[in-house]
TrEMBL record, chains A, B, C, D:
Organism: Syntrophotalea acetylenica
MF annotations from Gene Ontology: protein methyltransferase activity
Protein name listed in UniProt: Precorrin-6Y-methylase
Portion held of the full protein: 202 to 403 of 403
Keyword Transferase: yes
Organism superkingdom: Bacteria
GO process annotations (BP): cobalamin biosynthetic process; methylation
Keyword Transferase applies: yes
Pathway: Cofactor biosynthesis; adenosylcobalamin biosynthesis
Amino acid sequence: LVKQYEALAEASRPVLGIADEAFSAIKKQITREEVRAVTLAKLRLCQDMVLWDIGAGSGSVSIEADRLMPDGRVYAIEQNEQYQRFIRENLRKFHSRHVTVVEGEAPGCLERLPDPDRVFIGGSGGSLWAILSVVDQRLAAGGRIVVNAITLDTLAAASEFLENAGYRVEVTSVNIARTRPATDYKMFEAFNPVFVLVADKE
Amino acid sequence: LVKQYEALAEASRPVLGIADEAFSAIKKQITREEVRAVTLAKLRLCQDMVLWDIGAGSGSVSIEADRLMPDGRVYAIEQNEQYQRFIRENLRKFHSRHVTVVEGEAPGCLERLPDPDRVFIGGSGGSLWAILSVVDQRLAAGGRIVVNAITLDTLAAASEFLENAGYRVEVTSVNIARTRPATDYKMFEAFNPVFVLVADKE
Amino acid sequence: LVKQYEALAEASRPVLGIADEAFSAIKKQITREEVRAVTLAKLRLCQDMVLWDIGAGSGSVSIEADRLMPDGRVYAIEQNEQYQRFIRENLRKFHSRHVTVVEGEAPGCLERLPDPDRVFIGGSGGSLWAILSVVDQRLAAGGRIVVNAITLDTLAAASEFLENAGYRVEVTSVNIARTRPATDYKMFEAFNPVFVLVADKE
Amino acid sequence: LVKQYEALAEASRPVLGIADEAFSAIKKQITREEVRAVTLAKLRLCQDMVLWDIGAGSGSVSIEADRLMPDGRVYAIEQNEQYQRFIRENLRKFHSRHVTVVEGEAPGCLERLPDPDRVFIGGSGGSLWAILSVVDQRLAAGGRIVVNAITLDTLAAASEFLENAGYRVEVTSVNIARTRPATDYKMFEAFNPVFVLVADKE
């Protein structure tokens, strides 16, 4: 019976697309719904992959990735304690099945995780090159790394590292503006641009 | 054995994220990967919904929606014969399971379809209001309409109609630019902006 | 001697390009430097034109237009008293020569002004059609109207009015993001998009 | 009499804002009207400055800068012969007064020019660092460099060089889309994004 109820509940949850407000988070820091969708599409997730979500923040990418992969394993890596609490809260709220919170600092804490098929880097806490270096060693052939950069510095550094390491690199700039529903006038409010870098390992 | 093979093949296909080049289409007219991802997220598809994809073009939204909904039913409505051929070709190529091609002109051909939970309008062939009028009658309560507008005219008309009909309307402008992989210089190439309008029926 | 000093001072002021922070204004409401530059270019100002700046706000467009037109006459129309004070302060600060502040509500207060060669509408206080109607009667043949819209409503209404009145209408969407100087990381901060509508009277 | 006629003609030319189509150029390569306006505003030109326009292309920035500086001196530096012809043609067409075409390759050909107050780099033919190095030596204190980058590589390299050399660096990303006038539908067409880098010498 419980299982039936669960299945019913599941069926009524969107497979993709959770509103920003639905997550517990520091509002200004959450990856916006539209950027999250682009990020998830760029990750090219298959049903049973291992995803590392480095700098998981509120866990929004992990949670949506989990919904897309019925047999996946998602590792939400986050060193900030406040953010860890947000992630736990959101995992409960969204009934995530296969997300493990990894409390610790990357790249150190990556050692004990299974090798990834996909890696998402949403934040690197100043250790970008060290993280990319470990990720490069562990990532499966045919694997893919996606980095969301909001600074020119991160974008340039990630791009340089990954090209030198022989990856095929593509960058997409995403400029989003949105009107608020239920207002008299439809005024567009801009979100800060995000550069979504995709790197394929041959 | 066939079933096992099928399951295996399935597992190796991304649940979300198909490159633009992978579709048979008139290249300049396809909904770009990034915009498609935003559109799919805005559709808030659940596992077993009925989706009308009006003005299906190459069928790219239908095909990605089908992957997201294991028990869904997708109707790809398209009146242009060349596009219908593209859709059929793409459905085969991507092993789509629950997509029905509806050859004909909306809103006329919508009559024989089951009521939709979600409606996506990517093109309206000049009959936007007539289509919205039928969609409004048929859409379930709690249903959602997403319109991708590339002209100010479509955006303004859809917005006006749906607000007057009591929907809660939100518009997102999506400006995307992308570098090409495997070039010496990372030059950003812009795609035309798309306005993604979302309307919720209370 | 005073004249010489004046000339010297003049020579050391940029003809175009004033930083946002230099203006007294409600910071969030000022037309951003980049959008102002696009607006001024779209106005196609010649040396001795008459410009109406309707909804002048902080007066930033009037002040930059004045610098571009050595023999021009600029009318900064503004009904809000706080904004009028900002304009006066800014006119003094930037040594504007040919800008007249018009305190009052458009379109009523336009009656006593000389016919314009160019009209900029930065705000319309809810009377857009009434204003456009008067502007249309008074604008010289070969004249040009520029409207900066931040809402879909203003954009659609201005576009509809001016097309029906026989103008040649072009719309430019301007999406700007900027890094802050003197920070450790170059993070792009987005400004809300502005739609710059240009209408030519034949 | 000629002088009077000249003055009259002058008065009827816009001080700022020339349409892209008005220039002889390779259409896809011209700096778009809107980006040109932003660039000119960022240059903060005063009445009598010396401007180096490096990689002048069609000469559009030089020509608009000339109009803004009644007593300025503009050097349009260009090594490509086809582009040099475009520049000469455009200088004639737009009656530019104080623009000198410098045929040759930067940084070599910069030696014989007077020290600049402002430098615009629209193209660097692969010698960006060598050019910036010379520009840095020659630029007056209080001077300003503006670089328009369309690749991540140029943006990152210019930013790195100028920050290391002690400049105050700001980057603006400009995303423009425009409708065509006189069409039945207002469809927005995007131009490739440009990163406008501004560097101030203290």
